[in-house]
Amino acid sequence: MTTVARSGPPASPPKRSRIGDLRMRDVYRGLAVVAAAAAVAAGVVFVLPSGPDEVAAGPIAAPPAHASSSGATPPLQETPTSSVLGTTAAPSDAATAPSTTLTPSPLAATGRPAPTPGTTLAPGYTAMEALYADARLPRLPAKTRRVALKAPAGRTVKDRRSGVAVPRLAKPWKTYGPAPFTTRQVLPQARGTRLRGMFVTCPLPIEEQKAPRDSALLAARWTLNHHPKGATITWLASQPVRKGWMLMYRVTYGKHSSRAAVVVLDGGMPKPALAFVSVPDTQRKRWADVTRVISGVRVLG
């Protein structure tokens, strides 16, 4: 008997790796494409600037008085937006406007003459060059009058954070919420205006200079942030005080003005102390208190 073999589908060939089916030149070509793509991506990463400092900038004008603070000391910010002569004063949003970091090198080290008010400065200017280029402040005369400072008397307010004690002014002055400063005293708000007298202390909110006089000049410029827009300064008095410097000046804005003063002195803290007082002409009867303030600021002992 003859056995007939059944027909069926042919057996499948053994499976092989698809990679083995590729030609080696195709493999190398694929690897080259991947490597090229990675190189392009890496090139994009390194070409992109890491921050605004890498963007080239043209000449810029002298910045506003709110120079950025070096070594900020919360809660005080470099530049509060509200006028301290108003009913409230709050910290700014990281320096009110795009902050400009001032080079700490002194003006003399640059070998450049001091700019005149209104000068346009190129990048790399110092804090003092920005001061001299600011049209809101005239150059401090070499012979500025001095005021007679009486011995402090009466109660004091201690600012331990700044290392100073200051006069506690009599009524109608009263203490007020200090933020963003460390101490604050105010006069009652005058009828028909938001301006009011104010006396505050805090660690120096601008870059300290080698000479206390220069630090006081920069501090006076900084206080323009706390006066009405367009305010300008006229110097009234300038003199050294124990461990620091005092400046008295008139701030003019429109048809009105304020009498103001700053005292910058070393209170033994990481930053010098600043005492700042300003009284508008609507409360001119209290202008004598400006002299009381600058007479009574002293280092805690």
Automatic annotation (TrEMBL):
<feature type="compositionally biased region" description="Low complexity">
    <location>
        <begin position="87"/>
        <end position="122"/>
    </location>
</feature>
<keyword id="KW-0472">Membrane</keyword>
<feature type="compositionally biased region" description="Low complexity">
    <location>
        <begin position="59"/>
        <end position="75"/>
    </location>
</feature>
<feature type="transmembrane region" description="Helical">
    <location>
        <begin position="27"/>
        <end position="48"/>
    </location>
</feature>
<keyword id="KW-1133">Transmembrane helix</keyword>
<protein>
    <submittedName>
        <fullName>Uncharacterized protein</fullName>
    </submittedName>
</protein>
<feature type="compositionally biased region" description="Polar residues">
    <location>
        <begin position="76"/>
        <end position="86"/>
    </location>
</feature>
<feature type="region of interest" description="Disordered">
    <location>
        <begin position="59"/>
        <end position="122"/>
    </location>
</feature>
<keyword id="KW-0812">Transmembrane</keyword>
